[in-house]
Predict the structure.
Amino acid sequence: MLSLTLIAVLLACGVVAGFLAGLLGVGGGLVIVPVVVGVLDAAGLGGNYVQHLAVGTSLAVMVFTSVASVRAHHKKGAVNWAIVRGMAPAMMVGTFVGSLLAGWIPSNGLRWFFVIYAYVIGAQMFFGAAPTASRELPGIAGQSVAGGVIGMVSSWVGIGGGSMSVPFMGWCNVRMHTAIATSAALGWPIAVSGALGYLTAGWQTPGLPWGAFGFIYLPAMLALMLMTVLCAPLGARAAHALPVAKLKKGFALLMVVMASEMLLGLLRQG
């Protein structure tokens, strides 16, 4: 069981993750995953499956929090549903397969993957690096390949894929506002498929803590979901009044700090 202090940490994480998701259009997974890892480690829960539980829980939280974002973007007519139809099926397959494969990957292997990914995305956000728009959007086959790769990577990190799908669409001359909105819509099928995959992969795994539903830790999911759903709309409204470009750099530094903390833990383990 989690102590009241650790529950408070999860609630605070939900506030930050939800607000940043609304403010910057980024999924909360890059914040949620390392916090859930820290909470489970502090509580002595999860054993060899701490990272699996953190990633699965992050994807399960996004099932609920992404709905509000998609609705808001859809009301503004910003979502390109043709791209969603082109990428989502392969994206769901890639996410589900990746989630099942994650059950065979050691927890430290997933941690290393998360650390490297967080460093790369943190650097990309801090320096504003993005591929130059130099081609048109590919056909269904090309969109499917891109969707499958994005889905599989997302399943190992616990994110909605926006840090990959937005640059991909920008590279293909999709207007940035449309790319962000469409990425939000793609985040929901990734979350659903990933959550189902982690649930399935961990369903009969021995030694999981009480409250684990496969590789989804329900107490953490509920605490995080409550606050992210409440705070994401606040972040969306604040986006019109705050210096988003500077805040993105701050978020990039936060990712580097959290990834470094996870890296130190890996190095201490030898």
Observations:
- The radius of gyration is 17 Å.
- The beta strands are 212-213, 216-217.
